[in-house]
What does this fold into?
Amino acid sequence: MGRQDTEMLKGVLEGIVLAILASRPAYGYEITARLREQGFTDLAEGTIYALLVRIEQRGLVDVEKVPSEKGPPRKVYSLNAQGRESLTEFWRTWSFLVERLERLHDGKE
Amino acid sequence: MGRQDTEMLKGVLEGIVLAILASRPAYGYEITARLREQGFTDLAEGTIYALLVRIEQRGLVDVEKVPSEKGPPRKVYSLNAQGRESLTEFWRTWSFLVERLERLHDGKE
DNA sequence: CCGCGGTACTGGGTGTTGCTATGTACCGGT
DNA sequence: ACCGGTACATAGCAACACCCAGTACCGCGG
It folds into this structure.
């Protein structure tokens, strides 16, 4: 992926992470790995950690430190009520965008 | 629209403008007005002008100055070959994103 | 036993982008 | 003569994803 793609991720990536956490709690390293498997091959590791810090500071997630068998303790994030609200809001905005762009793609205006 | 929305526009807005120019040439003031009509109510005027300057510098559009009946001359932008290529690339990335997010929304992973 | 690779998190600095705010300029109607 | 709508330009700001380097913990092979 190139320059344009990384710009397009802005804002969207947060929604993606919230959506992942909505299905079940997860920690940074795991999220990065999963996203890379799912096609975001160039995703930088530091990006996810920074994003997690941000959404934690905004109170969208709860954090629990869990010891790992294979390295330093994991910070497991889980979506709380405010996070679910934010996710709903994200889907609303996302749907709006998708709808607008579909119209543009079909050349309706 | 709020904070999240403006972040989500990043990168996408360029694709939107390219798509608009693909259907027919247009000038900045006109593009801003059209986008506002189509739901991007909070779109700042300066944003479009800055964006047009950028895509011009990257050689994606051709520019022609056309006198207006109601004000200063318009700078009419039209998509050139390179711009069409860039637009195709944009749609490819966009489709990828839409596909990923659809999967997340349907809770498939 | 010691380095090495995999796991896991952290932090500083950079570039791109959209927003805010302000300024310039042209025109017609009152 | 002024005001509002048309039309463009730009300097400064904040947010975000990136790059890069560092820290730390573990098990394994030499």
